[in-house]
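Data card: per-record layout.
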Amino acid sequence: MGRSLLSAALLAGFTATLPTAAAAQFPPPPPPPSAGGPPPVQDRWPQPASPGRPVQTEPQRPGQAQPDQPAQQAAPAPRPRPPAAPATTVACSGVFGKDSTHLKLAIKYDSRNIVFGEVDGPDGTRLNASIIYPNDPRRRLEVLWNNEGSRSDTQLIAINGRSQWTAPKGLKLGLPLAALEKANGRPFKLSGFDQQGYASVTGWEGGALSSLPGGCRVGIRLAADGKAPDEARGAVSGDRNLNSNDPALRAVKATVAEILIGY
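The structure for this 263-residue chain is written out next.
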């Protein structure tokens, strides 16, 4: 988790009511057993005739293969399909509900695909979290717990970096500002962009993203386009409050850079 992202997100007010955090590859299926087949085709052909003697043939019996045609071999047994990978969608229920645990995640995603380790926290700190798919940036997900000892009681779920996880309401990284406003159903408030080019949503203004089924809340960090003109970036940077429908924000082409789901 990018240090500056989680730090600013937590300081932006989203996790103001959250207590500080105290602290599984699917093996390939075994190959199917070899399908039993009929005897070799050549064993079903008649013996070749001796020189000067006519070939003796037997009457054709029902179901018997023609002498000049090999019998059809039995079709091989179909290969079993590998189990489908769990969907990479976060919901405010199930294994991502308030009452979840590290064990529940390990059962769902295979214990080989989850570790309990340190992630970047605010102001240079390190926090303990359950990390799903820790070695795959596109499937990585971080889950922090209120009860670190038992690794239970979900506190915060972070989607960041290059993760392709989807949050409630279809939120995902890279979503443009206009699409985020549409998902909320109305304009919302956000802070000015910092020196690293990030801004945090400070209020959903009663929109659809103000509360989610299951009792969780969502916090968003947005990043300005690195190619945006300095003048445009300067107009939305610093210690200020902005509205998502501000024309100046459209000029920096802001997109979702981090999603925090908390209880």
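Known properties of this structure: The radius of gyration is 31 Å. The first helix runs from residue 3 to 11.

See the next section for split statistics.
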